[in-house]
Design goal:
With about 230 residues, the protein is an all-beta fold. The protein has 1 helix and 19 strands. The strands form 4 sheets. Strands 1, 2, 4, 6, 8, 10 and 11 form a 7-stranded mixed beta sheet that branches.
Length: about 230
């Protein structure tokens, strides 16, 4: 999950200025769309007293806006203080792969409202929460990425560690280490694809350990193999 912050209003940033940040809570770190169902959903909560404008949209894996594959409703609405609401995600294009998962990104932007009662200079920020939206075909419902991750094949290639994923699932890593040395910037490996992660210059040994993030955002058990 990533968060992007964009400036909505900047009024002569003085020593007396204050910062107002969006406080909307997203009810999950990812959305798994079951291909056998008509929709998926995720909850939102505004614990603040002030309302926020919520704008939502879907991007493809490359980060480009994609309005043809999924529809998010409501796409734009006001979420009042101390209130909850639910975003519904519906598939618009039925031509997605049926033998493997497909990755999209769900963007949820929280835009704060201006407070007319305040006289001081205020910097207001819109916070964009970006989480994975994974389409899982109905044919894959009998297993999980956690179970499938034992089939991963690891290889050292110079200053990089490669991982080949022969499974139809996106495998999202919480951590990867070589001989107990944690690797930085580990992300995920796509179905039937290979990903590469940089190794520290002094990395040694051949014992690889990794942990996978589950459908619910929890961290699974340690998996181990030798190169």
């Amino acid at each position: 999950m990533t968060t992007k912050i964009s400036t909505l209003l900047f009024a002569s940033f003085l020593a007396s200025s204050s910062i107002a940040q969006a406080g909307v809570v997203v009810g999950g770190t990812r959305v798994i769309y079951d291909g056998g169902k008509k929709e998926a959903s995720i909850g939102l909560e505004n614990p603040d007293s002030s309302p926020y404008l919520i704008q939502s949209w879907v991007e493809n894996e490359a980060g480009q806006s994609d309005k043809s594959s999924f529809i998010v409703t409501p796409p734009l609405f006001r979420l009042d203080g101390n209130q909850k609401n639910t975003l519904r995600i519906m598939q618009a294009n039925g031509a997605l792969a049926s033998d493997r998962e497909t990755l999209y990104w769900l963007n949820i932007k929280s835009i704060p409202t201006a407070d007319p009662s305040r006289s001081d200079n205020t910097l207001q920020l819109a916070v964009n929460t970006r989480i994975k939206l994974i389409y899982r075909p109905q044919a894959l419902k009998n297993s999980t990425p956690e179970n499938a991750s034992s089939a991963l094949k690891w290889t050292r290639q110079g200053d990089r560690l490669s991982v080949n994923n022969p499974t139809p699932y996106y495998i999202n890593f919480q951590s990867v280490s070589l001989n107990g040395r944690p690797l930085e910037k580990v992300t995920y490996v796509a179905p039937h694809a290979t990903a590469f992660f940089p190794l520290p210059s002094d990395a040694r040994g051949n014992q690889v350990e990794w942990k996978v993030i589950s459908d619910y955002g929890a961290v699974g058990a340690v998996h181990k193999t030798s190169l």
